[in-house]
UniProtKB/TrEMBL annotation:
PANTHER family: IDURONATE 2-SULFATASE (PTHR45953:SF1). This is Arylsulfatase A family protein. Residues 4-388 form the Sulfatase N-terminal domain. It holds the Pfam family Sulfatase. Keywords: Hydrolase, Metal-binding. One of its GO terms (cellular component) is cytoplasm. It comes from Deinococcus peraridilitoris (strain DSM 19664 / LMG 22246 / CIP 109416 / KR-200). GO terms for molecular function: metal ion binding; sulfuric ester hydrolase activity. InterPro entries: Alkaline_phosphatase_core_sf (IPR017850), Sulfatase_CS (IPR024607), Sulfatase_N (IPR000917). It comes from the Bacteria. Belongs to the sulfatase family.
Length: 494
């Protein structure tokens, strides 16, 4: 059997509803929709963590932060010797990365901020990738690395163009217009470099191509000449916090902008929500609320256009039938739901539920799968398709489910958050019906009946009528945690 090529595409901070085929007709995403209509849509996919680095490390290792150790932004995994790229390269794959990685801290000594020569030569031997072309950051602070060199080679005066014209003063989302033309956007760079890789690649060797789009992460700044913008008047309303009950203290503090002056933060500002932004006041302003959301979704439309170039290149160069295409995102964005913006120590669906689309022509039929799955499941699934033995990981191989088999026996999926080892942290367990969120060392928690309360207004954590359900969910969570514990071989009784 010919081993498939693998194209893994990860956007940044893209909610589940930020795909047209997921019930959002206000979007123009024909290429994302085509992946959904030609392959498998996982309708209940959850990220392992609500901020970038831990979730991205989980995607590349098949393990949760409690095992890989990269518990927050500014961290990295303790051991990268079993990165997906390392495993596939050892099995004979040509491995290449383009775009955002964020598997390391972004301090001055970060390997992701290493010098790039004037020719933009890809780095060699980067975390299991034979070659890699990186950029760090987003929009104005994302013109870095190989992307910056690409702009220089094109003669783009980035200092003049790399400015945002804001719609509002003191806007934490930096909603506005970016002076960078669409043709020179980082997404266009990714599409151009992907096409170049595919054109140069030797068909006789399977490839693993990993792409990291920087959007729709804030700033919500859209290129000035981008026309496929979302009409803000077509947007549905946000999920209000007005009827939310028994809201945990850190969620209240985050909503009001006071969490960074509370006992929950450590030596750094809260991950995914820096500053002192009163989100409730922000999203109570109809002009800001609708504009920032429209700009966010417009950036998804922009990604989709560049995705179309990539998918067309796969087809034109005769890679389409032999390539598994996976599209997902590291986490979502609250985007005004429950009167909160961005992300952080939150367990709402808006920030945890993400797209996961998989296309493998001739092997996987059109399906919409409802059982909860996790991004940690991508690792063993792709290794399985590549015929590579999978080490012991937290994720499960989904191939049987993809091919029409029964839903996984695992009754739910886990999510972990850790601001610091001695600060705010949680473990969540999500099943087809319920979501339990446990905060170690705290008396508060969360429990939602997702069937009857899909918008998570009624927290039943302290409701005596839900005590049996809470106990059952806690038992399942503990069983899943134990499943992750390392265990040595036992060849004899003594």
């Amino acid at each position: 059997m010919t081993r498939p090529n693998i194209l893994l595409i990860t956007s940044d901070q893209q909610r589940y509803d930020a795909v047209g085929a997921h019930g959002s007709p206000f979007l123009t995403t024909p290429h994302l929709d085509s992946l959904a209509h030609e392959g498998v849509t996982f309708q209940r996919t959850y990220c392992p963590n609500a901020v970038c680095t831990p979730s991205r490390l989980s995607l590349m290792t098949g393990t949760f932060l409690s095992r890989h150790g990269g518990y927050n932004i500014g961290c990295t995994a303790i051991d990268k010797t079993r990165f997906l790229s390392v495993m596939l390269r050892a099995a004979g794959y040509r491995t290449h990365h383009i775009g955002k990685a964020h598997w390391h801290p972004w301090n001055d000594s970060s390997p992701e901020k290493a010098p790039v020569d004037e020719h933009g030569t890809p780095w060699r031997d980067f975390v299991g990738f034979d070659t890699a072309e990186l950029t760090t950051g987003h929009v104005t602070w994302g013109v870095t690395g190989h992307y910056a060199r690409w702009l220089e080679r094109r003669g783009i005066p980035r200092r003049e163009l790399n400015q945002i014209t804001p719609l509002f003063a003191q806007d934490p989302n930096e909603t506005g217009t970016w002076g960078m033309p669409s043709a020179n956007h980082s997404s266009a760079w990714i599409a151009e470099r992907t096409t170049d890789f595919l054109e140069r690649h030797d068909h006789r060797q399977p490839f693993f191509l990993n792409l990291g789009f920087q959007d729709p992460h804030h700033p919500h700044a859209v290129p000035f000449d981008f026309e496929a913008r979302v009409d803000q008047d077509q947007l549905p309303g946000t999920i209000s916090s007005e009827t939310d009950t028994d809201v945990p203290e850190p969620v209240q503090l985050l909503r009001s902008g006071h969490i960074n002056s509370s006992r929950y933060r450590g030596p750094f500002e809260i991950a995914g929500n820096s500053g002192t932004h009163d989100w409730q006041a922000y999203f109570s302003d109809p002009a800001r609320e609708r504009a920032t959301r429209a700009h966010y979704y417009s950036l998804v439309n922009l990604i989709d256009q560049q995705l179309g170039i990539i998918l067309n290149a796969l087809k034109a160069l005769e890679y389409e039938r032999d390539t598994i295409v996976v599209f997902t995102s590291d986490h979502g964005d609250m985007l005004g739901d429950h009167d909160i913006g961005q992300k952080g120590p939150l367990a709402y669906e808006s920030v945890l539920r993400v797209p996961l689309l998989l296309r493998y022509p001739g092997h996987v039929e059109l399906r919409a799968l409802e059982h909860p799955v996790s991004l940690v499941d991508v690792y063993p699934t792709l290794l399985g398709y590549a015929g590579v033995p999978c080490p012991r990981v937290d994720g499960i191989d989904l191939r049987s489910y993809l091919h029409g088999g029964p839903a996984p026996s695992r009754p739910g999926v886990r999510v972990e958050y850790k601001e610091e080892p001695d600060r705010l942290r949680y473990k969540a367990w999500i099943t087809t019906h319920y979501k339990l969120v446990v905060y170690p060392g705290e008396s508060f928690g969360e429990l939602y009946d997702l069937n009857r309360d899909p918008h998570e207004h009624s927290n039943r954590f302290h409701d005596p009528d839900f005590s049996a359900i809470k106990a059952q969910l806690l038992t399942q969570l503990l069983e899943d945690l134990e499943r992750s514990e390392p265990a040595s071989e036992r060849p004899s009784r003594v």
